[in-house]
Amino acid sequence: MRVLVVEDEQLLADAVATGLRREAMAVDVVYDGAAALERIGVNDYDVVVLDRDLPLVHGDDVCRKIVELGMPTRVLMLTASGDVSDRVEGLELGADDYLPKPFAFSELIARVRALGRRTSLPLPPVLERAGIKLDPNRREVFREGKEVQLAPKEFAVLEVLMRSEGAVVSAEQLLEKAWDENTDPFTNVVRVTVMTLRRKLGEPPVIVTVPGSGYRI
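Above: the chain sequence. Below: its structure as tokens.
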């Protein structure tokens, strides 16, 4: 899942991004509305965590733009105000969910994951394919009943491959979904991660390399 965090309180923004990355999400961070509009014009995001009171371009205007573009991106709006009228107004702008500050981080994660599930075709909460069971919420992976311990990026790559339901996923698509924009697209990080993932999943190999195209399970 790829997420954009838009929050002008930099310490909070960076803390949210760090926490989401630990949950195997690819996260970009900006600190004002103008930068947010630039990012959504370039990258495809599953979820935007959007502070309402932003400098340069207000969060309301960022939300309106996402709706106007007809993007499948879901918006979780944050605000320091807990007034019901503000929450209603934010939802009427086109936000998909609303979370007042301060918030419990566990709730933020749950809401982001719930919104992320709504950007694609409905899938069961636990993904199963080729003898592998992957639970995105618990961040657990089992193969033939045996738990497999994965690093966050390995988990993210496996989740993308399993959600593709047998379709080939290119290295570029894996970079887009599992890494943030600071990753050098010319590195071999995808190949190395897939190799490590194959080793951890054990024999027989379940991740197939399709020459010139990408990977599939």
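Helices lie at 10-22, 33-40, 59-68, 84-92, 105-117, 152-163, 171-178, 189-201.
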